[in-house]
Design a protein that fits this description.
single chain
C-alpha cells in the first residue's frame, strides 16, 4: 500500500492551491482526496473537494457561509478520477471561488 500527499500551485493564484492525497494498493487508487483550498483569515479553507467518503466518489462544494453541495459522480475508475479532479480544480478554481463566496479573482 502506498500513499502520496502533495500540493499543486495554481497558475495566477497566490492564495489558492490544490491538495492531493492518493492511496494505492498494487498500483490501483483505492482512496483519494483532491481539494481546492483558499488562504483566508490566516488559515487554509476547503472550497471544493473530491473524495470517496460515503462509499462513492463525489465532489463537495463548500460555501463560505457554511452551506455545502454534494454531487455523486458515478465514476468507478479512481485512477482516472484523480486526473479528472485535478484538471477540473486547476481549470475551474476561479469559478469555484466565485460560486462559494471565497473571493473575487483580483484578490487571488
Amino acid at each position: 500500500m502506498g500513499e502520496k500527499n502533495y500540493f499543486i500551485d495554481l497558475e495566477g493564484a497566490k492564495l489558492c492551491r490544490v491538495r492531493v492525497y492518493i492511496k494505492t494498493e498494487k498500483g490501483v487508487v483505492v482512496d483519494l482526496v483532491i481539494q481546492l483550498e483558499r488562504w483566508k483569515n490566516n488559515q487554509w479553507s476547503a472550497v471544493a473537494r473530491y473524495d470517496c467518503a460515503h462509499g462513492a466518489l463525489h465532489i463537495d462544494i463548500l460555501h463560505q457561509d457554511g452551506s455545502k453541495e454534494k454531487r455523486f459522480l458515478g465514476e468507478n475508475n479512481l485512477n482516472q478520477a484523480v486526473t479528472k479532479a485535478i484538471d477540473d480544480l486547476k481549470k475551474g478554481w476561479k469559478d469555484y471561488l466565485r460560486r462559494t463566496g471565497y473571493g473575487q479573482e483580483e484578490d487571488q
